[in-house]
Design a protein that fits this description.
By secondary structure, this protein is of the alpha+beta class. The protein contains four helices and ten strands, in the order αββαβββαββαβββ. The longest helix has 35 residues. The two termini are 62 Å apart.
Length: 250
């Protein structure tokens, strides 16, 4: 019985040793595969194209100051027909006007005292009204903004911002640029690995960087993620940068 027990223990020990060796071999292969991983390459793709604004916004303002609330409001209303006549003569359709409400507020001024220091005093009332003109007829907006100076020269209490020239189909432009930038990224990746006799595989990940709408000749070297939207020019330059990670196949 003692010999049989000893033999059984010996056999069990051998089996355990073989099992542990096998486990160590299997684990060693898995660790090696995990350590080898899949090689990859990260590249940036760039796409640019000329675009043109297709609509504009222009804001004009009436602003008057009078001693009393009633006087300020009455003068504001008295000046309004001259502005309407100018815009109508410029061919800007009234259906594209968006008017703010009339506003009358106390006009406060800072007074410097002879002995030093300051105080704030009310000096009448300010009355204002804004009109935002939206139009797809860009030449009319351009001409009206140029002729506006002559209207001011008549002594009219009118001011205006510079027109904003906008691109209506931004999303379509962005999508076409992303497609072109992705193609550009793959070409760059293939050029990088050409000398190593390996191939660019499937896309592992991709991210869009900045989307720019720039003035002609604007700086396109900045790849930050903030982006830029130029609204001062009719002709523009659109730009997209993408970052893509590709697998490398041996």
């Amino acid at each position: 019985m003692e010999k049989q027990s000893t033999l059984a223990m010996t056999i069990l020990g051998v089996l355990l040793a073989i099992g542990m060796s096998s486990a160590a071999f299997i684990l060693g292969v898995q660790a090696k595969k995990a350590a080898s991983g899949q090689q990859s390459i990260t590249v940036k793709g760039l796409a640019v194209k000329d675009v043109k604004a297709d609509n504009a916004e222009w804001t004009v303002t009436i602003s008057v100051n009078e001693p009393t609330f009633a006087d300020a409001l009455n003068r504001l209303r008295a000046e309004r027909p001259a502005l309407d006549a100018f815009l109508t003569k410029a061919g800007l359709d009234k259906s594209g006007w968006q008017e703010s409400g009339e506003s009358v507020t106390a006009h406060m001024e800072t007074i410097y005292l002879p002995q030093g220091g300051t105080k704030t005093e009310q000096r009448g009332y300010d009355a204002t009204q804004n009109i935002v003109i939206a139009s797809k007829d860009l030449p009319k907006i351009v001409n009206a903004s140029k002729d506006f100076l002559a209207l001011q020269a008549e002594g009219r209490p009118f001011t205006a911002t510079d027109p904003l020239y906008l691109v209506g189909n931004l999303e379509d432009i962005k999508m076409s640029l992303i497609a072109a930038a992705t193609e550009n990224a793959r070409k760059r990746a293939e050029e990088f690995v050409k000398q190593d006799k390996v191939k660019v595989g499937v896309m592992r990940s991709a991210s869009q960087g900045a989307f720019y709408i720039l003035a002609p000749g604007g700086n396109t070297d900045n790849d930050d993620y903030g982006g830029t939207y130029d609204k001062t020019t009719i002709n523009k330059l659109a730009k997209v940068v993408v970052t893509i990670v590709y697998n490398i196949e041996q």
